C-alpha cells in the first residue's frame, strides 16, 4: 500500500484514490494479498473457503443488460454464483494470473444455488433430467399432490373462513384419485352393450347411451364419488403419524391440524352413508355391496397391510379394479328382467365378462403406475416403515411392472372378442399398450435409473385415459346408428328388426286380435237372425 501524504487528507473524497490504483494494474506482493484477505475474513467472520477472492461490478447491479453480466438478480445471485478460489491461486505474485483465475467457471454447488433461485420450472426439470441421465442417480420426488396443495391453500386463509374448512375437507377426499375412480366407473357404465333395438331403430339418438335413464347415471356418479371420499378420509385418519414422515404426505390436513381426527371420522361416516344410500336408490343392491366392500378393503385391509407385507400392492390393485365392475353392473341392472337380477346373475353370467375385463385393465394398470411412483420415493417409504416392493425387492418391482404391462394386450383383445368394442379399439389400445410396455421394459432394464421411473409413471398416466376414452368412442354398435341415420335402413335390416321385437308388444297385438274377433262374432249372429 502506498502511504498517503497529509495534504491528501484535506482533498475531496473523490480524490483519495491514487492514479495507479484507478487506471492501471500493478504488481502486488503475495504477503500483502494474504494479509488483506485474512484480515477481511477475520472482520466478517467468513472461513477461508467460503469468501470470493475478487469483487466484480455485477455484484452491485441488478440489471445484467447494464453491467454486462450473464446472471440474474444483481448482488445476491452474483454472490451465490461466485467462484471459490484455492489458496494457491491467491498466492500467485502475478496480478494478471489472479484475474484469469477469477474469470474461470463457477463451482457446481454455486451454480445449483443460482439456478435454484432464478431458474424457470421447465428449465429446472430439464436440468434435473439431464443430471440424472449423466450420473445415474434417482430423480427427485414428484410435485405435491392435490391434497397437499389444498392443505397449503387452506392454511393461508383465516381460521374462521368457510373456504378454509371446505378446502381442508376437500383435501381429505384425495380429489384426483376420486376423480379417476369415478372416471373408470362411468366409462364402464357407458361401454355396456347397446340393446339391439336401439341400434336398429333409426329414430334413436346415435350417442353412447344405454336403455337407461340419466338419473341412474347421476346416482352412480355421486354415490361412487362420496364412497371414495369416505375411503380416502379413513385412510388419512388411520396413519397421520406415518404420513408426517414423508414429503409426499406430510402436508395432509390431519397431519397439519387443519382437521381433527374426530371431525374426519364424522365426515367419513357421513359420506359413506350418503354415497351408499344413493347407490342403493339409483342402481341396484349388487353395485351398492361392491362399493361398501371397496371402502372396507381400502380402509381396513390395504391401509394397515402397507406396514406388514408387500402383498398390500395386490390388495390395492383389487380395490382399483372394483369400480369398473360397479359401473358395468349398474348398467346391467337396468336391462335385467325379473328373476335374472340376482347378484349371481350380475357377477357370474355370460353378460358380465365385459365388466370383469374392464376391471382387469384397472387391476393390471396399478402395478406399472404405482411401482414407478413408489420407486421415486422409495427411501421415504423405507424410513416411514411401509413395506413396499420398491425397496424390499427392487428387482421384483421392475419385473412385476413389466409383467402386468404386457398383460394389457390380451385383456384389451378380450374386450374386442366379446363384442364390447369395435375394430378401432384394437389399433388405439395396441399403440397405448405398446408405449406402456416400452417404458416398463426400460424401467426393468435400468432398474428405475436414468429417468426410466418417471417415464413409466407418465406413460401410465396417459395410457389409461386413452384406453377408456377409446373404448367409449369405438363402442360396438355405436357408429352403426350413426350410419343408419345418415344413409337410411335397408330392407334386410327391417326384416332382421322383426326378430328382435319385444315379446310384450307381440302379446299385445295378439290380445287386440282376439278382442276384435270376439266383438265381431255377436254382430254376425244378429245379422243372420234378422235375415231369417
Write the layout of secondary structure elements.
Layout: H1 19-23, H2 30-44, H3 64-67, H4 75-80, H5 87-90, H6 95-102, H7 108-118, H8 121-135, H9 146-155, H10 162-172, H11 175-191, H12 196-200, H13 214-238, H14 240-243, H15 261-282, H16 285-305, H17 312-335, H18 343-348, H19 353-376, H20 378-384, H21 389-392, H22 394-406, H23 408-417, H24 423-446, H25 452-473, H26 478-487, H27 491-498, H28 503-531
Protein name: Protoheme IX farnesyltransferase, mitochondrial
Biased composition (Low complexity): 103-118, 516-532
Keywords: Heme biosynthesis, Membrane, Mitochondrion, Transferase, Transit peptide, Transmembrane, Transmembrane helix
Highest CATH level, the class of the largest domain: Mainly Alpha
Strand content: under 5%
Rg calc: 36 Å
Q: Roughly what is the average pLDDT, rounded to an integer?
A: 75
Second rung of CATH, namely the architecture of the largest domain? Orthogonal Bundle
Poorly predicted regions are: 40-117, 196-212, 493-501, 522-532
The total strand number stands at 0
Amino acid at each position: 500500500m502506498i502511504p498517503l501524504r497529509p495534504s491528501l487528507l484535506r482533498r475531496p473524497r473523490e480524490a483519495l484514490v491514487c492514479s495507479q490504483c484507478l487506471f492501471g494494474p500493478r504488481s502486488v506482493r503475495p504477503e500483502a494479498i494474504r494479509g488483506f484477505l485474512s484480515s477481511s475474513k477475520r472482520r466478517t467472520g467468513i472461513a477461508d473457503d467460503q469468501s470470493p477472492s475478487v469483487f466484480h461490478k455485477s455484484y452491485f447491479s441488478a440489471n445484467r443488460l447494464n453491467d454486462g453480466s450473464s446472471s440474474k438478480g444483481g448482488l445476491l445471485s452474483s454472490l451465490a454464483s461466485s467462484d471459490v478460489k484455492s489458496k494457491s491461486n491467491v498466492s500467485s505474485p502475478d496480478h494478471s494470473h489472479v484475474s484469469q483465475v477469477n474469470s474461470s467457471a463457477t463451482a457446481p454447488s454455486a451454480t445449483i444455488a443460482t439456478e435454484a433461485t432464478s431458474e424457470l420450472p421447465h428449465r429446472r426439470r430439464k436440468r434435473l433430467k439431464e443430471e440424472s441421465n449423466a450420473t445415474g442417480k434417482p430423480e427427485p420426488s414428484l410435485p405435491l399432490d392435490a391434497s397437499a396443495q389444498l392443505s397449503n391453500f387452506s392454511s393461508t386463509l383465516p381460521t374462521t373462513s368457510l373456504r378454509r374448512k371446505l378446502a381442508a375437507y376437500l383435501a381429505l377426499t384425495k380429489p384426483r384419485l376420486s376423480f379417476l375412480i369415478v372416471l373408470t366407473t362411468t366409462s364402464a357404465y357407458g361401454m355396456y352393450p347397446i340393446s339391439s333395438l336401439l341400434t336398429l331403430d333409426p329414430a334413436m339418438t346415435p350417442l353412447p347411451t344405454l336403455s337407461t335413464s340419466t338419473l341412474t347415471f347421476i346416482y352412480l356418479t355421486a354415490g361412487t364419488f362420496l364412497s371414495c371420499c369416505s375411503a380416502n378420509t379413513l385412510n388419512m385418519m388411520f396413519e397421520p403419524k406415518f404420513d408426517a414422515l414423508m414429503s409426499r404426505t406430510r402436508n395432509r390436513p390431519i397431519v397439519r391440524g387443519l382437521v381433527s381426527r374426530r371431525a374426519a371420522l364424522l365426515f367419513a361416516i357421513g359420506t359413506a352413508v350418503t354415497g351408499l344410500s344413493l347407490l342403493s336408490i339409483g342402481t341396484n343392491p349388487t353395485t351398492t355391496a361392491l362399493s361398501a366392500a371397496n371402502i372396507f378393503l381400502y380402509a381396513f385391509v390395504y391401509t394397515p397391510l402397507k406396514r406388514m407385507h408387500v402383498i398390500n400392492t395386490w390388495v390395492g390393485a383389487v380395490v382399483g379394479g372394483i369400480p369398473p365392475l360397479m359401473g358395468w353392473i349398474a348398467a346391467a341392472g337396468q336391462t335385467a328382467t325379473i328373476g335374472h337380477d340376482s347378484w349371481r346373475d350380475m357377477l357370474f353370467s355370460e353378460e358380465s365378462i365385459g365388466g370383469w375385463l374392464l376391471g382387469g385393465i384397472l387391476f393390471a394398470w396399478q402395478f406399472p403406475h404405482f411401482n414407478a411412483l413408489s420407486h421415486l420415493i422409495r427411501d421415504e417409504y423405507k424410513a416411514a416403515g411401509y413395506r413396499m416392493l420398491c425397496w424390499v425387492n427392487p428387482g421384483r418391482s421392475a419385473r412385476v411392472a413389466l409383467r402386468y404391462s404386457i398383460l394389457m394386450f390380451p385383456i384389451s383383445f378380450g374386450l374386442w372378442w366379446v363384442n364390447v368394442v369395435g375394430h378401432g379399439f384394437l389399433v388405439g389400445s395396441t399403440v397405448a399398450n405398446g408405449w406402456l410396455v416400452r417404458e416398463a421394459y426400460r424401467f426393468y432394464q435400468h432398474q428405475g435409473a436414468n429417468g426410466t421411473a418417471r417415464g413409466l409413471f407418465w406413460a401410465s398416466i396417459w395410457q389409461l385415459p386413452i384406453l377408456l376414452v377409446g373404448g367409449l368412442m369405438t363402442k360396438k354398435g355405436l357408429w352403426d346408428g350413426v350410419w343408419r341415420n345418415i344413409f337410411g335402413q335397408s330392407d334386410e335390416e327391417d326384416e332382421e328388426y322383426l326378430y328382435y321385437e319385444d315379446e310384450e308388444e307381440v302379446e299385445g297385438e295378439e290380445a287386440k286380435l282376439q278382442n276384435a274377433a270376439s266383438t265381431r262374432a255377436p254382430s254376425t249372429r244378429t245379422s243372420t237372425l234378422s235375415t231369417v
